[in-house]
Structure formats: structure tokens, C-alpha cells
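Reviewers of the previous submission asked for a worked example of the structure-prediction workflow described in the proposal, so we include one complete record here. The input consisted solely of the amino acid sequence. No template or homolog information was supplied to the procedure at any stage.
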Amino acid sequence: MRQTRLTWRLGVTAAVLMAGMGCSSSEQVAQAPAEAAASAPAANPNEPTLRMVEANGIKMRIAEMGKGPLVLLLHGFPESWYSWRHQLPALAQAGYHAVAPDLRGYGKSDKPEKVEDYDITKLTGDAVGLIDALGEKTAVLVGHDWGSIVAWNALLLHPTRFTGLVPMSVPYGGRASSSPMEAMKKRVGDNFFYIVYFQEPGAAEKEFDGDPRGFLSRLYLSPDSPREAPAVTDPKRAAGGWIPRMGAPKGLPPWLSQKELDYYVQEFTDAGFRGGINFYRNWHRNWETTPQLSGATIAQPVHFISGAQDGVIGRANEEQLTKMMSPVAKDLRGVTLIPGAGHWVQQEKPAETNAAILEFLKGLSGN
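From that input alone, the workflow returned the following C-alpha cells.
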């Protein structure tokens, strides 16, 4: 999400301190026919295979390419497997089995009804369940945005199942000593802030489901993308929701074609936004149910990637981010900030992102 300095202070500072408890799964690959990969616009002549698998008690759609060590790619909000369309072929060509699921609540994956079915226990359990469903013992995790939050927690909660981590956009500095959600609400007060807005039952999904193109086209932009003036400038929540607070785009960014935007819009027209929003509705629950993560550390190699202009990191440089993450990530092998990129780094700068991921993977023993 394109974010402000307020987001850095309230949203991401809270996000990186958020933790959860996961659960493992031993589901087998479902005997479901593969979907036609041609249903998605191609970013590469070698398209991924789309199919359904069972993992952690739910059905999930995965996009996969290649053979070799397993690399799981977890997307963020509001995205899908398609966010990794540039990484899947690059990883496959380098000798990896690249798998990008629609996370629960997204795309063609199952969408449980209960809010608590989207807590960090279930989300990290899905990552473990995918490893089992694919017949593997371990995987390297790559996550962006919410996928990064899930990935950090998956390594903390299931350390034997993951051999490395590439988090993108959302760093992690350890579990907060008090509820980040409660602190966020207190600081925002009556003002609008999207994470607090998402706590209102039914409000955000009603807004976004009513105009998925308007919402997505305002989010999928670069930091310097030209916009119209926002329709709502009053900071109070009572003045309106999120869409009118974001100026409409004057055109598509160079990294996103009309066909690609259309694919995203159709996915959310079909699936709705409720599942992804429910991730946020477990913010307090995730903190409350994971006291065991206080002081927990990650021994596996970690390499952090972000767009240098991503509002989530709030102008932090490599040194500052390293200082933040190294108390938790004991084998932090680097921080890559990609110039000219904002929040959607793996789509904005795919070549640079792929190079950083592959360089990290080469350094892992056994890969």
C-alpha cells in the first residue's frame, strides 16, 4: 500500500512487531485439474501452471514453475499469485521450484467465513501446509507486504520447515510489549487511517467491492505517478472511506499494462476484498495469542528487499533497517533498497528484484 509518514509510525511500526502462532499440516495434493494458465495475461512466454491443492484444511490455488528446491512466494494486500508473474519464470530458469499461492481469502483459494480463520496461526499454517502438499520437507520463503508479515512469523513459529527468508517492504524488529492495534487506535483517534478503518465490520469491503477498479487503480501506482486531486481531504474518518482520499490516476504506471490491471480487477470482482481485509482484523488477536514470541529470534539466513521510495520504510536507509532487524534476524545477509521503486517493488523493478533474490538463494547451503 502506498503509505504516508503516519503509516510508517502507526502501520508498519505495528506491523513489524506483530506476531502469531502457526500450526503445521499434513495435507496431500488434491486431485484437481489444472486451470488454464492462459486465463491470465502473460508476462513471459513460459507461463506458470495454475492448479488447486489442499493445504492446512483448505483448498488453495497455486501458480508454479520449474523444478528444484522449493521457493514459496507469498503476496500482500490487495494482490494475488499474479504479483509474482515476473519472479516465477526467473526462479524456474535458475533451477528452483517456484510456487506462488493465492493466500486464503484471495483469488480462487478458499475464503473461510470467520474472521479468526485469518489469524497468524492459520496463515503460517497454510505456508507449512503447502510444503507438505507439494511433498517437500522445507522451503525458502519470499514474502511481500502481508506476505512478508506471514513469512517472518512462519520462520519464528515453524523454524524447522524453512531454510531462508526474503521479506519485502515490511521489516521486523521483534514482538511489541503492548498491543500495536490498541496503540494505533489511540494515536489515530477520530482521524482516518486505513488499518483502523479495516476494523469496522463490513465497511471497507462494501466500499472496495463497490468499485474494485477505482480502488486498485489508485493503489497500483509509483510514488511519482501523477494523480487527480483527492475528493476528500478532511482527515476525520466521518468524512469518508479510503477511495476518495486517494487521487485518481492520470494514467497507468509504466510497469502495469491495462491487461494486467484488468486481470487484477477481475480477480477481486470475483473474490471480493473481505478475505484480505480479515488479515488486518486479526491484528490484536495475533499479538495477544503469541506471548511466546517475545525475544524470539530467527537463525536462518535473511535478506530484506524494498523499494527505496516505499513509504512503508519511511526513508530508512540500509544502516537503519539493519539495526532494526538484526536483533531478530541473527543471520541478516543484507538489505537491498532498489532505487526508483515504491511499494510494488517486484513488479516495478523485476530485474533488480530477481537479481537480489537469486543472489541470496545462491548463498544458501544446499541450493
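Residues 1-44 have pLDDT under 50 and may be disordered. We consider this example representative of the routine output the project will generate in years two and three.
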